[in-house]
Amino acid sequence: MGKVNPEDVGKPLSVGEVARRSGVAVSALHFYESRGLIRSVRSAGGQRRYGRDVLRRVAVIKAAQRIGISLTTISAALAELPEGHAPTVADWTRLSTAWRADLDERIAQLTKLRDQLDDCIGCGCLSIEACRLRNPLDELSEQGSGAQLL
Predict the structure, then answer these.
(1) Domain named HTH merR-type: which ranges (predicted)?
(2) Structure pTM?
(3) Are 129 and 143 in contact (CB under 8 A)?
(4) 1-87 to CATH, choices 1.10.540.10, 1.10.1660.10, 3.40.50.460, 3.40.50.620
């Protein structure tokens, strides 16, 4: 990386500059903007310009997506942050703490699914009547095989 030009500090970034610096495709940035995750203003020539805070917002979005947080949840969380300011360490701590319970729940579900998969490997049936993996929560199977609601 080169030296920072003092004249560039505070200067809005083009979509190409944000893409290059964040490692996110221009199309993804446009998508994030359409979903309200990031914001831009238009230059006199109609081009998108982003505040430098968008780089930290994009980093938060990518980190949250990597752990499986939905864009809807990310959007709601970012909407609580002050507009035009980069998320701080305290902001990230608050967001990640809130997402931790969801992540722990998904880990527990995946662990249970993995353990049930071992049963299927043992029996090999994948029976629609009895398989907890293929047909979870099938309460009607207790009444016998075949259609029960006809």
Answers:
(1) 12-80
(2) 0.68
(3) no
(4) 1.10.1660.10
